Amino acid sequence: MATTDQLEQTLGDGIRAVRLARRLTQVELADRANVSLGALKHLESGAGATTTTLVKVLRALDADDWLHRLSPPEQPFDPLALLEQRQREQRRATGPRRVRHRADGS
Questions:
Q1: Tens-digit pLDDT string for the chain (106 aa)
Q2: Where does 4-70 sit in CATH, by number?
């Protein structure tokens, strides 16, 4: 499993590759993203960056669709389905119900 530092480096390498493919200098991209040159250099080098810097740079590169791939798909909230799910889970947790009969047969 990759370390956090390795993943940050991989992310920075990817951003640098996209920037170069778009034929942008670091100064141009920093200006378009409205971030400091130092923040962009930190991001590209994997030296750490804020999520705000990451989002601004991805938007400036027109690559923010990548962020949407990280979010779960939107599902409409169905309160009845949630209630049914909880009831099923509760039944599984308590096991089958036993019916007791009285000794007098009733």
A1: 889 999 999 999 999 999 999 999 999 999 999 999 999 999 999 998 999 999 999 999 999 888 887 777 777 777 888 888 888 888 877 766 666 666 665 5
A2: 1.10.260.40
Structural contact between residues 32 and 43, judged by C-beta atoms closer than 8 angstroms: no
SS3 36: coil
The closest alpha carbon to 4, from 40, 48, 45, 44, belongs to: 48
* C-beta atoms surrounding 46 within 10 Å: 19
pTM of the model: 0.65
CB 60 within 8 A of CB 20: no
**Domain range annotation of the chain:** 4-70
The three-state secondary structure class of 33 is helix
